Each structure stands twice: as structure tokens, then as C-alpha cells.
Amino acid sequence: MTKTITVIPGDGIGPDIIDSAIKILDKAGCDFNYEFVEAGLTALEKTGELLPEATLAAIKNNAVTLKGPLTTPVGEGFTSINVSLRKQFNLYANLRPVKSFKGTKARYDDIDIITVRENTEGMYSGLGQVTSADGNEAEAMSKVTRTGAERIVRFAYETARREGRKKVTAVHKANILKSTSGLFLKVAREIAKEYPEIESDEMIVDAVCMKLVMNPEQFDVIVTTNLFGDILSDLCAGLVGGLGMAPGANIGEDCAIFEAVHGSAPDIAGQNLANPSSVILASIQMLEYLEMGDKAKKIRAALADVIASGDRTTRDLGGSHGTTDFTQAVIDRL
Fold first, then answer.
1. Which of the listed residues 192, 218, 239 is the one where a domain comes to its end?
2. Where in the sequence is the domain holding 132, given as residue range(s)?
3. Which of 17, 215, 256, 327 would suit a FRET pair with 140, their CA atoms being 20 to 30 Å apart?
């Protein structure tokens, strides 16, 4: 039976790079059906809503979604669309792999790190945000639960086991944030005992930032809380050439959303300039999630060869070509 994938083209450069990924998926013989729905500014203009009910229904019904970058209007009244999607579908695990590709402008050439970020709790979740009437004070709440910590740490170890990884590093700030980060670290130590075949490490977040810059090769799988994971995953993307080379997956018990992690880049929208690698890599994650590993490997190999050869690459990769040429170069190899 043919699998139906929900597709959210997104805003700005989103439609162009999503079109690139779909053409590549089709050329690889994935044989998907696609249900296209809107979210973000595009949806707001058409329906008056940032997340229309039809979009939410499609995400739920099809269980797997490929998403372009979305724009949340600046100002009050609506939190991040991505945060809203994670809460709506309890997408508790954010999986951000980064891997070096020969031919990029990255400073390192042997990076292979997975950041596993708790996606629904902690300081990033937006709980208890209050600003005083006079505008002089603001506060927000960070809440970490044992349930939330257990499932994200176990998800990290299961990911490590499945992919043959050797080490999991629990990243925290328990020396200062003794309650929230302290609970996370305590749970991480408990879960680590269930996986004796995998080396377990723990490290304070500021030390991790320094060591990622100085000696990133020492890291394998990183697991951490929401805010720290948001920051560290972008830092890791910088090790392999930037957000244009980093995909993201938001995974829950019943559904998953795979996405380009960069912004919508409205300044180059519609100009055939964007590098589609992030969403192509997200589609590879999606194939792995669907246990279509053979197709995932073929697309990754084709993408890697295009970047390494410099054949029709985009400006950020040192070339002079656009999205369509880059996409065709990948398709030619497939």
C-alpha cells in the first residue's frame, strides 16, 4: 500500500526546497502519495489561521510529515508555530544529526554527532511567561518531569544502540540549576545503567560548548534538555557548514515531523538561490524512520557526490548555481 506523506511547503524558500526534496524522493522510487497543506504566513494569508484545522488533521491522519521552514509573525499573541506543533502532537524527541560532507566550507571534516533534545518541557516550552504591567519585570517557568526526562534519555540510548553508536553524553547545568537540571541528570544516570554496552558520559553545558569548538570529534550522541538542545544543535550545525546542512526530526509516539531547521529566508524567496540540502537530509531521516534505509542511502550518496564534486552547487557551498540545478545534479546521480 502506498504511503501518504503530509507536506507543508512552508514560507519563503520553503516551497522551492520542498519541491526539490519531493523530486528526489520520486526519482529514488519511494512511491509516496503527498497531501499538501498550509501553515505559517502562507496559511494566515489564505485562511486567517497560522495552523488551520485541515493541516492539523492531515498531520494526525498521515502520521508522517515533511515540512519546510515556517514564519511566525513577530509580536505578541502567538508562540512559535514549531513549538505549537510539538505540543499538539506530543513530539517529545528532537533528533538533530550532523555529519561532515566533503566539499563544504566547514572547518572540520570528520564530524558525526547526533543531538537528542527534549522537545516539550524545560525553559523553552513557554510556561508561565509573565511581564509586569509596568514592563520592568518578566518571568518564565521551567518544568522538568521524571517522565519527560526518562523518555528522552531512553530515546537517546535506543538511538545509539540502533545506529551502533559508542557513547552518550548527558548535558546539564545541575551545578546551578539543581532542581530542573538536577532531576534530568539523576534520571540520565539511572537510565545509563540499563545500557552497559554504551559508554555514558555527563558534562556541564558550558564545557560542552567549549569542547565542541576545540575537539568536537569526542562527541557521539548528546542528550539534553530543551533550551540547551536548541543551542547546542545549532552549534553542531556550524561544525558541518551551517544550518543549510542540518536536518531535524520531531518524533512522538504516534507521528513525526521532518523539517529543514533553518529559517524561511524571505530575502531570497522565489529567486532559485536556496540550498535544499537541509530538507533533502530531513527526507533521508524520514525514510530511515519509515524503514526505507536502502532509499535513504542512495539519496545520501548522491547528495554527497554532488557536494564533493562541486557539480552545480549553490553559493553557500562555493558554487554559482541555484536550487533547480543543484536538484537536477542529485537526480542525475540517482
1. 239
2. 112-239
3. 256
Q: Are residues 88 and 123 in the same domain?
A: no
Whether pLDDT at 31 is above 80 = yes
pTM: 0.94
Q: If we measure between CA atoms, which residue out of 327, 331, 274 comes closest to residue 68?
A: 274
Known active-site residue 92: no
Q: Which uninterrupted H or E stretch holds 95?
A: strand 93-99
Q: What is the dihedral of CA 261, 228, 77, 54, to 10 degrees?
A: 40
DSSP string across 194-207: T-TTSEEEEEEHHH
- Pick the catalytic residue from 11, 19, 220, 230: 230
Q: Residue 74: its pLDDT value, please?
A: 66
Distance from C-alpha of 40 to C-alpha of 51, rounded to nearest angstrom:
7
Note whether residue 101 is domain-resident: no
pLDDT reported for residue 1: 75
**What integer pLDDT is reported at residue 73 of this predicted model?**
72
Mean pLDDT computed over 261-278: 95
Residues 193-251 have pLDDT tens digits of 999 999 999 999 999 999 999 999 999 999 999 999 999 999 999 999 999 999 999 99
One-letter amino acid identity for 111?
Answer: I
206 catalytically annotated? yes
Q: Which residue in 124, 157, 220, 295 is the catalytic one?
A: 124
- Choosing from 31, 109, 206, 332, which is the catalytic residue? 206
DSSP lists the bridge partners of residue 231 as none
**Are residues 277 and 319 both part of a single domain?**
yes
End position of a domain, from candidates 239, 260, 282? 239
Query: Is residue 108 annotated as part of the catalytic site, yes or no?
Result: no
Q: What one-character-per-residue DSSP string does 251-273 give?
A: E-SS-EEEEE-S---GGGTTSS-
Write down the pLDDT at residue 79. Answer: 65
Please indicate, yes or no, if residue 102 is contained in any of the structural domains. no
* Active-site residue, 26 included: no
CATH code of the domain in which 130 resides:
3.40.718.10
